[in-house]
Amino acid sequence: MFFASDNAGPAHPSVMQALMDANTGYASGYGADPQMTRVRDMIRNAFEAPEAAVHLVATGTAANALVLATLSNPWETIFCSPMAHIHEDECNAPEFFTGGAKLTLVDAMDALMTPQGLQDAILAEETRGVHGPQRGPVSITQATEKGTVYNTADLIALTDVAKSFGLKTHMDGARFTNALVSLGCTPAEMTWKAGIDAVSFGGTKNGLIGVEACIFFDPAVSRQFEFRRKRGAHLFSKHRYLSAQMLAYLTDDLWLTMARQANAACAHLVHGLQHVPDVTLLFPPQSNLLFFDAPRALHRRALAAGAVYYVTRGDVDDGPDDELLTGRLVCDWSTDHGMIDRFIAHLTR
Predict the structure, then answer these.
(1) Which of 83, 102, 169, 281 could form a disulfide with 111 if both were Cys (CB 3.0 to 4.6 A apart)?
(2) 3-class SS at 280?
(3) Per-10-residue mean pLDDT for the chain, 349 residues long?
(4) What is each CA distance from 216 to 71, 169, 191, in whole angstroms?
Protein backbone atom coordinates (compact mmCIF):
# COMPACT_ATOMS: atom_id res chain seq x y z
CA MET A 1 0.00 0.00 0.00
CA PHE A 2 2.50 2.56 -1.24
CA PHE A 3 1.18 6.08 -1.83
CA ALA A 4 4.19 8.22 -0.89
CA SER A 5 5.06 9.47 -4.38
CA ASP A 6 4.84 8.65 -8.06
CA ASN A 7 8.63 8.93 -8.27
CA ALA A 8 8.87 5.77 -6.14
CA GLY A 9 7.01 3.55 -8.61
CA PRO A 10 8.74 1.22 -11.06
CA ALA A 11 9.83 2.12 -14.56
CA HIS A 12 7.61 0.63 -17.25
CA PRO A 13 8.93 -2.64 -18.77
CA SER A 14 8.96 -1.02 -22.22
CA VAL A 15 11.38 1.57 -20.89
CA MET A 16 13.68 -1.10 -19.48
CA GLN A 17 13.58 -2.92 -22.81
CA ALA A 18 14.40 0.29 -24.66
CA LEU A 19 17.49 0.71 -22.50
CA MET A 20 18.58 -2.82 -23.30
CA ASP A 21 18.02 -2.20 -27.01
CA ALA A 22 20.09 0.98 -26.81
CA ASN A 23 22.91 -0.81 -25.02
CA THR A 24 24.46 -2.34 -28.13
CA GLY A 25 27.33 -1.09 -30.22
CA TYR A 26 28.43 2.51 -30.30
CA ALA A 27 26.58 5.81 -30.44
CA SER A 28 27.76 9.40 -30.47
CA GLY A 29 27.46 11.19 -27.15
CA TYR A 30 26.08 14.46 -25.82
CA GLY A 31 22.78 14.25 -27.70
CA ALA A 32 24.13 13.34 -31.13
CA ASP A 33 22.74 9.79 -30.87
CA PRO A 34 20.18 8.71 -33.50
CA GLN A 35 17.55 8.07 -30.83
CA MET A 36 17.62 11.76 -29.91
CA THR A 37 16.82 12.73 -33.48
CA ARG A 38 13.69 10.58 -33.29
CA VAL A 39 12.78 11.93 -29.86
CA ARG A 40 13.06 15.51 -31.08
CA ASP A 41 10.84 14.78 -34.06
CA MET A 42 8.25 12.94 -31.95
CA ILE A 43 8.02 15.73 -29.37
CA ARG A 44 7.71 18.36 -32.08
CA ASN A 45 4.97 16.32 -33.69
CA ALA A 46 3.11 15.74 -30.39
CA PHE A 47 3.22 19.45 -29.59
CA GLU A 48 2.48 20.56 -33.17
CA ALA A 49 5.63 22.68 -32.99
CA PRO A 50 7.97 21.82 -35.87
CA GLU A 51 10.55 24.47 -34.92
CA ALA A 52 10.66 23.81 -31.17
CA ALA A 53 14.03 23.26 -29.51
CA VAL A 54 14.12 20.04 -27.47
CA HIS A 55 16.78 19.04 -24.93
CA LEU A 56 16.94 16.27 -22.32
CA VAL A 57 18.13 16.32 -18.71
CA ALA A 58 17.89 13.69 -16.00
CA THR A 59 15.98 15.49 -13.24
CA GLY A 60 13.01 17.80 -12.86
CA THR A 61 14.99 20.23 -10.75
CA ALA A 62 17.59 20.56 -13.50
CA ALA A 63 14.87 21.06 -16.10
CA ASN A 64 13.12 23.80 -14.15
CA ALA A 65 16.26 25.60 -13.04
CA LEU A 66 17.97 25.55 -16.44
CA VAL A 67 14.85 26.61 -18.35
CA LEU A 68 14.21 29.48 -15.94
CA ALA A 69 17.87 30.50 -16.11
CA THR A 70 17.51 30.67 -19.89
CA LEU A 71 14.38 32.84 -19.64
CA SER A 72 15.57 35.25 -16.94
CA ASN A 73 18.38 37.53 -15.82
CA PRO A 74 20.10 37.50 -12.41
CA TRP A 75 18.57 40.85 -11.46
CA GLU A 76 14.99 39.69 -12.10
CA THR A 77 12.37 37.90 -10.03
CA ILE A 78 10.36 34.83 -11.09
CA PHE A 79 6.64 34.80 -10.27
CA CYS A 80 5.18 31.54 -8.96
CA SER A 81 2.65 30.04 -6.56
CA PRO A 82 3.62 29.59 -2.88
CA MET A 83 3.08 25.85 -3.47
CA ALA A 84 5.26 25.72 -6.60
CA HIS A 85 7.89 22.99 -6.63
CA ILE A 86 10.55 25.55 -7.52
CA HIS A 87 9.75 27.33 -4.24
CA GLU A 88 9.11 24.45 -1.84
CA ASP A 89 11.28 21.58 -3.02
CA GLU A 90 14.30 22.62 -5.08
CA CYS A 91 16.71 23.96 -2.45
CA ASN A 92 17.06 27.34 -4.22
CA ALA A 93 18.22 25.66 -7.45
CA PRO A 94 16.42 28.25 -9.63
CA GLU A 95 18.11 31.06 -7.71
CA PHE A 96 21.47 29.30 -8.07
CA PHE A 97 21.26 28.50 -11.78
CA THR A 98 19.87 31.92 -12.67
CA GLY A 99 22.82 33.55 -10.92
CA GLY A 100 20.69 35.23 -8.28
CA ALA A 101 17.17 35.82 -9.57
CA LYS A 102 14.69 35.65 -6.70
CA LEU A 103 11.19 34.20 -6.46
CA THR A 104 8.08 36.32 -5.89
CA LEU A 105 5.09 34.39 -4.56
CA VAL A 106 1.66 34.97 -6.09
CA ASP A 107 -1.57 34.48 -4.18
CA ALA A 108 -3.22 31.19 -5.11
CA MET A 109 -6.46 29.32 -4.43
CA ASP A 110 -6.21 25.50 -4.33
CA ALA A 111 -2.57 26.03 -5.43
CA LEU A 112 -3.80 27.78 -8.62
CA MET A 113 -2.55 31.30 -9.28
CA THR A 114 -5.23 33.79 -10.28
CA PRO A 115 -4.81 36.42 -13.02
CA GLN A 116 -5.58 39.21 -10.54
CA GLY A 117 -3.10 37.82 -8.04
CA LEU A 118 -0.44 37.60 -10.73
CA GLN A 119 -1.09 41.12 -11.94
CA ASP A 120 -0.91 42.49 -8.40
CA ALA A 121 2.38 40.68 -7.76
CA ILE A 122 3.92 41.95 -11.01
CA LEU A 123 2.76 45.53 -10.37
CA ALA A 124 4.38 45.41 -6.93
CA GLU A 125 7.82 44.91 -8.50
CA GLU A 126 9.93 47.47 -10.40
CA THR A 127 8.79 50.09 -7.90
CA ARG A 128 12.27 51.01 -6.61
CA GLY A 129 14.20 51.50 -9.82
CA VAL A 130 17.67 50.00 -9.79
CA HIS A 131 17.38 49.14 -6.09
CA GLY A 132 14.80 46.37 -6.46
CA PRO A 133 14.37 43.23 -8.57
CA GLN A 134 13.12 43.63 -12.11
CA ARG A 135 10.19 41.67 -13.48
CA GLY A 136 11.06 38.23 -14.83
CA PRO A 137 9.24 35.14 -16.11
CA VAL A 138 6.13 33.50 -14.71
CA SER A 139 6.34 29.82 -13.73
CA ILE A 140 3.16 27.72 -13.70
CA THR A 141 3.08 24.26 -12.09
CA GLN A 142 0.84 21.89 -14.10
CA ALA A 143 -0.52 19.77 -12.44
CA THR A 144 -0.05 21.64 -9.16
CA GLU A 145 1.60 20.24 -6.06
CA LYS A 146 -1.89 19.90 -4.55
CA GLY A 147 -3.25 17.79 -7.41
CA THR A 148 -5.29 20.57 -9.02
CA VAL A 149 -5.12 21.45 -12.71
CA TYR A 150 -5.25 24.74 -14.63
CA ASN A 151 -7.71 24.48 -17.53
CA THR A 152 -6.76 26.07 -20.84
CA ALA A 153 -8.82 29.19 -20.12
CA ASP A 154 -6.95 29.59 -16.81
CA LEU A 155 -3.62 29.29 -18.61
CA ILE A 156 -4.56 31.82 -21.28
CA ALA A 157 -5.69 34.29 -18.65
CA LEU A 158 -2.36 34.00 -16.81
CA THR A 159 -0.19 34.22 -19.92
CA ASP A 160 -2.19 37.24 -21.11
CA VAL A 161 -1.22 39.00 -17.89
CA ALA A 162 2.41 38.01 -18.36
CA LYS A 163 2.41 39.19 -21.98
CA SER A 164 0.90 42.53 -21.01
CA PHE A 165 4.14 43.16 -19.08
CA GLY A 166 6.38 41.61 -21.75
CA LEU A 167 7.18 38.56 -19.61
CA LYS A 168 7.79 34.94 -20.66
CA THR A 169 5.93 32.00 -19.13
CA HIS A 170 7.40 28.64 -18.11
CA MET A 171 5.37 25.52 -17.34
CA ASP A 172 6.74 23.13 -14.71
CA GLY A 173 5.27 19.92 -16.11
CA ALA A 174 6.64 17.26 -13.77
CA ARG A 175 3.09 15.85 -13.94
CA PHE A 176 2.38 17.37 -17.34
CA THR A 177 0.73 14.27 -18.77
CA ASN A 178 -1.51 13.70 -15.75
CA ALA A 179 -2.86 17.21 -16.26
CA LEU A 180 -3.15 16.71 -20.00
CA VAL A 181 -5.29 13.58 -19.82
CA SER A 182 -7.36 15.14 -17.04
CA LEU A 183 -8.24 18.06 -19.33
CA GLY A 184 -8.61 15.94 -22.46
CA CYS A 185 -6.85 18.55 -24.58
CA THR A 186 -3.78 18.42 -26.83
CA PRO A 187 -0.21 19.27 -25.75
CA ALA A 188 -0.32 22.30 -28.04
CA GLU A 189 -3.56 23.54 -26.49
CA MET A 190 -2.06 23.27 -23.00
CA THR A 191 1.19 25.01 -23.94
CA TRP A 192 2.08 27.33 -26.81
CA LYS A 193 -1.50 27.83 -28.00
CA ALA A 194 -2.24 29.01 -24.45
CA GLY A 195 0.75 31.35 -24.48
CA ILE A 196 3.39 29.16 -22.78
CA ASP A 197 6.96 29.84 -23.96
CA ALA A 198 8.85 26.89 -22.47
CA VAL A 199 7.97 23.57 -20.82
CA SER A 200 9.67 21.16 -18.47
CA PHE A 201 8.04 18.02 -19.90
CA GLY A 202 8.25 15.42 -17.15
CA GLY A 203 8.78 11.69 -17.46
CA THR A 204 10.34 10.60 -14.17
CA LYS A 205 7.04 10.73 -12.24
CA ASN A 206 5.25 8.90 -15.06
CA GLY A 207 7.09 5.63 -15.52
CA LEU A 208 10.61 6.60 -16.60
CA ILE A 209 13.83 6.06 -14.68
CA GLY A 210 14.98 9.66 -14.94
CA VAL A 211 14.35 11.90 -17.96
CA GLU A 212 12.77 15.32 -18.47
CA ALA A 213 12.50 17.20 -21.77
CA CYS A 214 13.12 20.96 -21.89
CA ILE A 215 11.06 22.40 -24.73
CA PHE A 216 11.42 25.95 -26.06
CA PHE A 217 8.83 27.04 -28.60
CA ASP A 218 11.18 29.85 -29.67
CA PRO A 219 14.32 28.04 -30.82
CA ALA A 220 16.35 31.26 -30.68
CA VAL A 221 17.21 30.59 -27.03
CA SER A 222 18.28 27.00 -27.65
CA ARG A 223 22.01 27.70 -27.87
CA GLN A 224 22.01 29.56 -24.56
CA PHE A 225 20.29 26.60 -22.91
CA GLU A 226 22.92 24.23 -24.29
CA PHE A 227 25.72 26.29 -22.74
CA ARG A 228 23.88 26.46 -19.42
CA ARG A 229 23.23 22.72 -19.40
CA LYS A 230 26.90 21.95 -20.04
CA ARG A 231 28.19 24.54 -17.57
CA GLY A 232 25.73 23.27 -14.96
CA ALA A 233 27.03 19.67 -15.34
CA HIS A 234 23.75 18.32 -16.69
CA LEU A 235 24.84 17.31 -20.20
CA PHE A 236 25.08 13.51 -20.29
CA SER A 237 28.03 11.97 -22.10
CA LYS A 238 26.21 8.68 -22.74
CA HIS A 239 23.13 10.59 -23.75
CA ARG A 240 21.56 7.67 -25.64
CA TYR A 241 20.31 6.24 -22.34
CA LEU A 242 18.25 9.38 -21.77
CA SER A 243 17.04 9.34 -25.36
CA ALA A 244 16.07 5.65 -25.19
CA GLN A 245 13.81 6.25 -22.21
CA MET A 246 12.06 9.20 -23.82
CA LEU A 247 11.72 7.30 -27.08
CA ALA A 248 9.94 4.43 -25.32
CA TYR A 249 7.80 6.97 -23.47
CA LEU A 250 6.53 8.51 -26.69
CA THR A 251 6.15 5.30 -28.70
CA ASP A 252 2.56 4.03 -29.06
CA ASP A 253 1.38 6.79 -26.67
CA LEU A 254 2.83 5.02 -23.63
CA TRP A 255 3.12 8.39 -21.86
CA LEU A 256 -0.63 8.95 -22.19
CA THR A 257 -1.50 5.38 -21.22
CA MET A 258 0.52 5.52 -17.99
CA ALA A 259 -0.93 8.89 -16.98
CA ARG A 260 -4.46 7.63 -17.58
CA GLN A 261 -3.72 4.61 -15.39
CA ALA A 262 -2.36 6.80 -12.59
CA ASN A 263 -5.31 9.19 -12.77
CA ALA A 264 -7.79 6.31 -12.84
CA ALA A 265 -6.17 4.80 -9.75
CA CYS A 266 -6.46 8.14 -7.97
CA ALA A 267 -10.13 8.40 -8.97
CA HIS A 268 -10.69 4.93 -7.47
CA LEU A 269 -8.93 6.07 -4.31
CA VAL A 270 -11.12 9.18 -4.14
CA HIS A 271 -14.25 7.07 -4.49
CA GLY A 272 -13.15 4.87 -1.59
CA LEU A 273 -12.19 7.76 0.68
CA GLN A 274 -15.56 9.43 0.14
CA HIS A 275 -17.12 6.49 1.97
CA VAL A 276 -14.77 6.61 4.98
CA PRO A 277 -16.24 8.41 8.00
CA ASP A 278 -14.25 11.40 9.30
CA VAL A 279 -12.20 11.77 6.10
CA THR A 280 -12.28 15.10 4.24
CA LEU A 281 -10.65 15.79 0.87
CA LEU A 282 -8.90 19.17 0.96
CA PHE A 283 -8.48 20.04 -2.73
CA PRO A 284 -10.37 19.05 -5.87
CA PRO A 285 -8.63 15.79 -6.91
CA GLN A 286 -7.99 16.40 -10.61
CA SER A 287 -4.87 14.37 -11.37
CA ASN A 288 -3.00 11.59 -9.57
CA LEU A 289 -2.51 12.97 -6.08
CA LEU A 290 -4.74 14.15 -3.28
CA PHE A 291 -4.67 15.55 0.26
CA PHE A 292 -7.05 14.51 3.02
CA ASP A 293 -7.75 15.28 6.65
CA ALA A 294 -8.45 12.44 9.06
CA PRO A 295 -8.19 11.85 12.82
CA ARG A 296 -4.79 10.86 14.18
CA ALA A 297 -6.16 7.46 15.20
CA LEU A 298 -7.13 6.68 11.62
CA HIS A 299 -3.67 7.64 10.30
CA ARG A 300 -2.05 5.47 12.97
CA ARG A 301 -4.19 2.50 11.99
CA ALA A 302 -3.40 2.85 8.29
CA LEU A 303 0.34 3.29 8.83
CA ALA A 304 0.48 0.40 11.32
CA ALA A 305 -1.18 -1.80 8.70
CA GLY A 306 1.65 -1.08 6.27
CA ALA A 307 0.39 1.90 4.31
CA VAL A 308 3.16 4.26 3.19
CA TYR A 309 2.33 7.93 2.65
CA TYR A 310 3.32 11.34 3.96
CA VAL A 311 1.52 13.05 6.81
CA THR A 312 2.17 16.64 5.82
CA ARG A 313 0.59 18.36 8.81
CA GLY A 314 0.73 17.06 12.36
CA ASP A 315 2.64 14.45 14.34
CA VAL A 316 1.18 10.96 14.07
CA ASP A 317 2.82 9.83 17.30
CA ASP A 318 1.98 12.74 19.58
CA GLY A 319 -1.45 14.14 20.43
CA PRO A 320 -5.09 13.24 20.92
CA ASP A 321 -6.62 10.54 18.73
CA ASP A 322 -9.33 12.81 17.37
CA GLU A 323 -7.03 15.64 16.21
CA LEU A 324 -7.16 16.08 12.43
CA LEU A 325 -3.92 15.48 10.53
CA THR A 326 -3.31 15.95 6.80
CA GLY A 327 -2.12 13.11 4.61
CA ARG A 328 -0.93 13.10 0.99
CA LEU A 329 -1.64 10.15 -1.28
CA VAL A 330 -0.10 9.74 -4.75
CA CYS A 331 -0.81 7.10 -7.40
CA ASP A 332 1.49 6.13 -10.24
CA TRP A 333 0.93 4.11 -13.43
CA SER A 334 1.42 0.81 -11.59
CA THR A 335 -0.89 1.48 -8.61
CA ASP A 336 -3.13 -1.54 -8.26
CA HIS A 337 -6.84 -1.10 -7.51
CA GLY A 338 -6.68 -4.08 -5.16
CA MET A 339 -4.02 -2.28 -3.13
CA ILE A 340 -6.31 0.74 -2.92
CA ASP A 341 -9.20 -1.44 -1.76
CA ARG A 342 -7.01 -2.92 1.01
CA PHE A 343 -6.03 0.56 2.13
CA ILE A 344 -9.66 1.69 2.28
CA ALA A 345 -10.58 -1.47 4.17
CA HIS A 346 -7.99 -0.67 6.87
CA LEU A 347 -9.39 2.85 7.21
CA THR A 348 -12.94 1.64 7.64
CA ARG A 349 -12.20 -1.37 9.84
Answers:
(1) 83
(2) strand
(3) 94 98 95 97 98 98 98 98 96 96 96 97 95 97 97 98 98 98 98 98 97 97 96 97 98 98 98 94 95 95 94 89 95 96 91
(4) 10, 11, 10
3-state secondary structure 291-337: EEEEEHHHHHHHHHCCCECEEEECCCCCCCCCCEEEEEEECCCCCCH
The torsion angles phi and psi of 192, rounded to 5 degrees, stand at -65, -30
Q: For residue 285, what is the domain's CATH number? A: 3.90.1150.10
Domain holding 289, by residue range, is: 255-348
Q: Do residues 144 and 101 share a domain?
A: yes
Determine the pLDDT at residue 245: 98
Whether pTM exceeds 0.70:
yes
Q: What total number of domains does the chain contain? A: 2
Among candidate residues 198, 218, 252, the one where a domain is terminated: 252
The rounded percent of the chain whose pLDDT value lies above 70 is 100
CA angle 148, 65, 243 (to 5 degrees): 90
Residues 228 and 337 in one domain: no
